[in-house]
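Dear H.,

Thanks for agreeing to be a second pair of eyes. The structure we're designing against is below in token form, covering all 461 positions.
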């Protein structure tokens, strides 16, 4: 089994030729720090709207080195935040509904750009299934559906599938039911970010790789090779943000780990089903997420080691043996036919989590500093929407996007160490215990331990 090496997705696709590092200090209209989805989508839309702008992207490693080249490949319309918290903004509930609609539309927008730019990212809009594998998980699914209905979502947004309806799509062992939403697509994440970088570069945006930004101040992004002076400097560094001076407690770098099987046999697929290529998750507190890949594998992820002390980040994405076996156990429990399937690759990456679990998009027109991120693991579609929004903000456009409630949303800072480490590890220990208790218990009650964890952490539901 290959372990680390950034991700299976990059290994399968092959890393494209690298862009050069910044040769010397330079000037630009807009300087984007970070070459993941957020940075590249922002560059893409800015360039489309105003082709004459000089846009520079500075990337510490290579484009797609971060979560954008490592993720589970769900282009999901799930809200990267809390409805109740966003509803406290000036537009109230209507603002939240507008944000949710915009996220749903974003899936088609990503598909449209892939088509227009010739990006083959294995995109299939098959929707998403959230399965319950215990009575407590099933009760949470039904609670979720009630909550969605109370917010006005109809069956076009989410619907409950009983065991037989689920089995007509996919055979998941011990599944009690599922929620289905059509608003999700499956992609090969590295293929998307590579295609996007090519499109942006083709259009005249300068991408400099192996160029770490060491500090950002109004009008200046400093690197070891010189400064980039620009009217606007946009920080698009999500899970890596804590490495920049003064931002250690802004976004917590939460770790997520994945494994991928070897290609499964036709016989195994006949047993599993999954012909609709829905993305798949569960309702565990330490939840899993999965996709059926274009070449017939299952890629499955979960939390693993949730957080490294002092907001540390493991560059190459090496996963502990314990995490690999936890994920393999989940895979084999859900799909017993994968019992003897080899695990080909394991890797991990970091995503950015704000203290109140609500993503945000910011631009201060006076200082020219902006940023977007904190998508809490739901950043693939959200980064496109954030990129379009940042582009409108930079251009001074007052649009439907710039009125969305995550624009200007402020989250509190994370606690200092050692509280941060203790809190996150304590929370996931509680969640794992709660999951074990719920799977042993035949009752529909969510473990009080998990409720307490949600309360302390502020994780929205
Ligand atoms: C394992 C995993 C699974 C996930 N699964 C999903 C999923 O299925 N669906 C979903 O919606 N979301 C998922 N996410 C989250 C999603 O991938 C991210 O939210 C999204 O990719 C963030 O994009 P980004 O461009 O903001 O950040 P990133 O992709 O992390 O890009 C940031 C870039 O900035 C660069 N950088 C950092 N610091 C500097 C600096 N100082 N100077 C220059 N460059 C710098 C980094 O090298 C990196 O390339 C997952 C995340 C992980 C880790």
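And this is the sequence the design step returned. I haven't edited it by hand at all.
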């Amino acid at each position: 089994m290959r372990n680390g090496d950034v991700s299976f997705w990059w290994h399968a696709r092959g890393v494209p030729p690298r862009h050069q590092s910044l040769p010397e200090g330079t000037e630009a209209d807009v300087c984007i720090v970070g070459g993941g989805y957020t940075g590249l989508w922002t560059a893409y839309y800015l360039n489309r709207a105003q082709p004459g702008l000089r846009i520079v992207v500075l990337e510490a490693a290579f484009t797609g080195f971060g979560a954008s080249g490592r993720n589970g490949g769900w282009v999901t319309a799930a809200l990267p935040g809390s409805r109740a918290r966003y509803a406290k903004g000036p537009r109230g509930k209507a603002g939240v509904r507008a944000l949710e609609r915009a996220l749903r539309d974003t899936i088609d927008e990503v598909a449209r750009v892939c088509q227009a730019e010739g990006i083959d990212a294995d995109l299939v809009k098959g929707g998403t299934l959230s399965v319950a594998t215990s009575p407590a998980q099933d009760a949470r699914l039904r609670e979720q559906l009630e909550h969605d209905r109370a917010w006005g979502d109809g069956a076009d947004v989410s619907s409950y599938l009983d065991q037989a309806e689920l089995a007509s799509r996919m055979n998941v062992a011990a599944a009690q039911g599922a929620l289905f939403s059509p608003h999700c697509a499956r992609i090969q994440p590295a293929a998307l970010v590579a295609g996007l970088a090519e499109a942006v570069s083709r259009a005249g945006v300068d991408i400099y790789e192996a160029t770490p930004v060491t500090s950002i101040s109004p009008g200046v992004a400093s690197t070891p090779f010189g400064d980039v002076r620009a009217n606007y400097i946009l920080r698009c560094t999500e899970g890596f943000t804590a490495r920049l001076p003064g931002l250690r407690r802004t976004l917590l770098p939460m770790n997520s780990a994945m494994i991928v099987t070897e290609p499964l046999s036709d016989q195994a697929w006949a047993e599993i089903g999954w012909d609709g290529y829905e993305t798949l998750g569960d309702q565990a507190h330490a939840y899993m997420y999965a996709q059926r890949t274009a070449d017939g594998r299952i890629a499955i992820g979960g939390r693993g080691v949730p957080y490294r002390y002092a907001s540390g980040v493991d560059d190459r994405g090496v996963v502990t043996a314990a995490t690999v076996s936890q994920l393999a156990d989940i895979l084999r429990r859900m799909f017993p036919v994968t019992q003897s399937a080899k695990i080909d690759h394991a890797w991990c990456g970091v995503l950015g989590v704000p203290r109140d679990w609500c993503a945000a998009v910011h631009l201060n027109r006076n200082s020219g500093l902006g940023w977007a991120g904190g998508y809490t693991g739901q950043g693939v579609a959200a980064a496109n929407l954030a990129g379009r929004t940042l582009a409108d903000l930079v251009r001074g456009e007052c649009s439907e996007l710039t009125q969305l409630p995550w624009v200007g949303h402020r989250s509190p800072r994370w606690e200092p160490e050692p509280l941060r480490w203790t809190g996150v590890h304590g929370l996931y220990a509680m969640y794992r215990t709660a999951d074990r208790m719920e799977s042993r218990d035949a009752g529909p009650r969510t473990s009080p331990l998990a409720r307490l964890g949600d309360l302390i952490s502020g994780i929205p539901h």
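Two observations from my side: The first strand starts at residue 2 and ends at 3. DSSP finds twelve helices and 19 strands in the chain.

Warmly,
E.
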